[in-house]
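Below is how a single chain appears once it has passed through the pipeline. First comes the sequence as given, then the structure the pipeline wrote out for it. We keep one example in the README because the format questions we get most often are answered faster by looking than by reading.
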Amino acid sequence: MTATDHRTGTSPEELVARLRAHARSYHSLHPFHLRMNQGTLTPDQIRGWVANRFAYQEAIPLKDAAILANCPDVAVRRRWIRRITDHDGTAADGPQSGGIEAWLRLGQACGLSREEILDRRHVQPGVRFAVDAYVTFARTRPWVEAVASSLTELFAPDLMAERLAAFERYYTWIDGDGLQYFRNRLVQAPRDSEHALEVVTAHCHTIAEQDAAEAALSFKCDVLWAMMDAIDHAYT
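Resulting structure:
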């Protein structure tokens, strides 16, 4: 089908099934991630993953701000903005709140200093390129496509549960308080993906719109996989 195909697409239920099928290309199946959950990574490999992944964590509010800037729907904006405060924290909650701060605490629990995480000295070029590509996508593509790209969150709860269990079982040298980011996402990811699915199914009715939404999710899966490739190459 072409990008100008305005024929009616599949039902919302069928569209959701198509989107969920992309779980097979989610980065949870990357060899590096499989080794992580099997408990075979070294401390240096864990630290390398944490330091590089911070580049992505830091970019999430930028991606969400781009979606807000392009979104004309006030109801969507009112709900979507919570994603930014989830990651940046709020003044009311204090300077130690938010997902970015929680990831920094994870890095410290792994033996990294805040300085070396924040100055990005460990971030690999491939990771930087993938993260920049994702933010650019959110800024330049139609806002509904950018929302669809966030639907990797559909697969995140299972990933987070497996990751948390693996870290608690195999990587006991990491202070358990540093794992709070994973615990938070067990609650946040289902809530966020439910909203994103509502948006996509409400706005994607034609074949072209549904194909674009699916392509956006596929692109995001590629972004996460490319990051893992770069990390795997650097630390394995």
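The chain has one domain: 12-235.

See the next section for the split statistics.
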